[in-house]
Predict the 3D structure of the following.
Amino acid sequence: MWEEMLKLTQTEESKEFKLFAALVDGEVEVEDAVQWVINTTMDRLENYGAGGTIEKADAITFIAIIELAMQIDTTQYGPLVDFLAELKLYNAVDSSTGLVLKTQDGSRVWSHLPSLSFWASELWNDRMTYICDPNMEPDQQIRWAKLNIFLAQVTQAADVQYTSPLQVWISDAMDESHMGLCGLRHVFEEGIPPERLASTAGLLGVCYWIVCAGDRLWENVLNRRRYNKYDGRPGEMYSKRGWKGFERDRWDVWVQGLRDVKAVCTSGQELVEDLIDRALSKIEHVMSNEMTSS
């Protein structure tokens, strides 16, 4: 589906994709990119007429960001993260009514960045059945790893206020913790043997989530961050646990899952073993910080 969407929208030929490529190359300033996207999106919406929606007008911006993130070096993500941080300071306003434009679920464009979550979720759902398949093509594994690194970096950059355990409406639109939770559930809670996981993109994804956003994930655990029944549900192996999000005993399951995979790594999997060690080291670091401050 993702490849079909790229063809349908001609993403790599779009002005948005070229704009973001110039942004990461330092040829465009973040503020200029934001203003261009705002003006272009509103012009596009007006051109659609009565049959258009803000979701449709906003879509190509986030499809382009996500696709570019899966192509470029991960050291280049900074400007894209800065772009999102700047864009969320604005709301799309209907010029005829003065009202803030919202998606069908009530999310504000752009301050809630609904299209970021929507298209990241669409890509996740498109790849879900493949990420724990050891036979996934190497280039697709790399793209999956990059997607997770990008979303984790965006999430770590968010300023989350833990006002209540159940946060249907997040306090910072850049927080995509639920995507990390989906990955951790799929990899460590569905009964997939560690020997199989060691060669999968799914394992790479969750390791990078912990390495890049371990502080945010651990804060979620400490504050018992919960989600709706679907997003927060446990995997099949733990269906009776009643988990709804980032519970402490669930965190322990993930940590043990990493250790179990490391224990079965064989010759030739040194890079995977090193990545697991980095994730375990990050876990130890964030947990020790909490113990020190308590």
